[in-house]
Amino acid sequence: GNSVTQMEGPVTLSEEAFLTINCTYTATGYPSLFWYVQYPGEGLQLLLKATKADDKGSNKGFEATYRKETTSFHLEKGSVQVSDSAVYFCALAPSGGYNKLIFGAGTRLAVHP
Amino acid sequence: GAVVSQHPSWVICKSGTSVKIECRSLDFQATTMFWYRQFPKQSLMLMATSNEGSKATYEQGVEKDKFLINHASLTLSTLTVTSAHPEDSSFYICSARVAGISTDTQYFGPGTRLTVL
Questions:
Q1: Degrees (nearest 5) of the Cα angle B110, A90, B114?
Q2: Of A1, A91, A105, B3, which is least surrounded by CB within 10 A?
Q3: A46 to chain B: which residues are within 8 Å by CB?
Q4: Which of A41, A43, A104 has its CB closest to that of B43?
Q5: Contacts of residue A4 in chain B, CB cutoff 8 Å?
């Protein structure tokens, strides 16, 4: 079946540190991959996405590359800010349908000044 | 951007009562809305897909008679937890899908925390 596994949090970093949040997936076919972010008290927001192998999604300094050979979609940012503190969810949409998003458990990021 | 609201944001009820949660798309119309459930430190689990003017499609293992979904208009879907019990306590999240020629995105509400005593 389809599933998403992401690293457990919380991840605690100092401002300007490098961020990596690992995400691996299991899926049949060719899923689309997503990173969502949830700030305190708000709904999930799409951060970036990639729809095929070797695609790189990027937004707000965050990047993730769709690696089919390692079934991974790791989230990275070169220099985090306090305002990046949030919960990050990796997700996939099975091939053929955006309707069903399958989420990882979420990783809480805390950035300190 | 597109905004989805949920009401209430939190609710506490007694066991055996029913609770209704509303999901509204504030500045756009959504033919499809989704309802998710999230347990502490766990993934969002899709419960059902709600299409305006038709019956909801429930995921395997979700009791449709317990979780009643109504999508009466293009901006409103409701989830009613009937005869709630403590095991129904959870965080319920809705999303609204916008699909067009060049876009296909889900916009999420902030969630509703249900506590059943």
A1: 30
A2: A1
A3: 105-106
A4: A104
A5: 43
